[in-house]
Amino acid sequence: MGVHARRDPGLSPGQRGPRARWDEDDVRVRPNPKGSRPRTKERPAHADAVDGFVVAVDRGRSYCLVGEGTPQQRVVRAMRARELGRQGVVVGDRVGLVGDVSGTPDTLARIVRIDERRTALRRSADDTDPIERVVVANADQLVVVTAVANPEPRSRLVDRCLVAAYVSGMQPLLCLTKGDLRPAEEVLGTWAPFGLDAVVTSRGPEGLLGLAEVRERLEGRTSVLVGHSGVGKSTLVNALVPDADRATGHVNAVTGRGRHTSTSMAALALPGGGWVIDTPGIRGFGLAHVDPEAVLRAFPDLLPGERECPRGCTHDEPDCGLDGWVAQGRAGAAGAVRLASFRRLLAARRPAREDQVGPDEPPEVPVDA
């Protein structure tokens, strides 16, 4: 009898052919010894999830503030639920928690929901990596901290931070430190065309001068502080939040660079309301993911001129329509300066070449971001 013959219950497997033992009629369905239920795409709604605010993330564990502003305020340690897939949790996220949310030692809750982010500060690993990574969520402003001297300000690095702020939907604020070493006006002129808000701090006999103005700019907001090593960012944070106890370092007299001191990102509550998010040292601030159109949206006086551009214009080509828009005076009296500033930010997206770097500005510098 052929291999493909219909099964005859009176024949043994050997008589039905060599492959008859694999006939589907011979399949035996055995019960699952573990007794687990089959997987389903349906997920629980978790209507009873407790709201939390992520104040720190460390080695796969998130530390979430629950009951903010109430007598029951506490920090709950939590892990990301598997049902969230690849979606990561970052400082600033608003999340939903289930499980043990008592906040007592050795307990672990689960994050089952990540609320939609109002803003997201993103970066790529370097300028050749187009994959963007969210660093901080739901911040209102990006405070770019740089010293007027010791170490010297790195304008290209500040420009890159400004690009990150603009494309993330955050308001940039320039904070100049060590104003007692050099007139701040000499440095502020570098970024005058951007119309940035700026504050200046300096050391005085009784502490940090200019701190009250900084507090005023941060009050009621969630602010991210970024800046390369040695600029005094941790000193500023400790002055703003006295119990923060962020480590401080010094500037190397030979290299002119500082040593990274902050090692973990954390959201710290300001005494007058609001949050300041201090950032650890990250060896780069890649902008490969940034599209020129996203930068242009930060220049509303130039944005309408995009209609004059050829298709696929990168806005730094000879036939860019923005040049004609500015030449006709349609961008205002400061149009030419603003266009130059816009193209300066576009250039900051690309890796620095040796011929683009001044003697006091190394091609790559660490940045706390």
UniProtKB/TrEMBL annotation:
UniProt-listed Pfam families: RsgA_GTPase
Domain EngC GTPase: 137-283
Classification via CDD domains: YjeQ_EngC
Compartments where located: Cytoplasm
Enzyme class, spelled out: hydrolase
GO CC terms: cytoplasm
Superkingdom assignment: Bacteria
Described function: One of several proteins that assist in the late maturation steps of the functional core of the 30S ribosomal subunit. Helps release RbfA from mature subunits. May play a role in the assembly of ribosomal proteins into the subunit. Circularly permuted GTPase that catalyzes slow GTP hydrolysis, GTPase activity is stimulated by the 30S ribosomal subunit.
Record's protein name: Small ribosomal subunit biogenesis GTPase RsgA
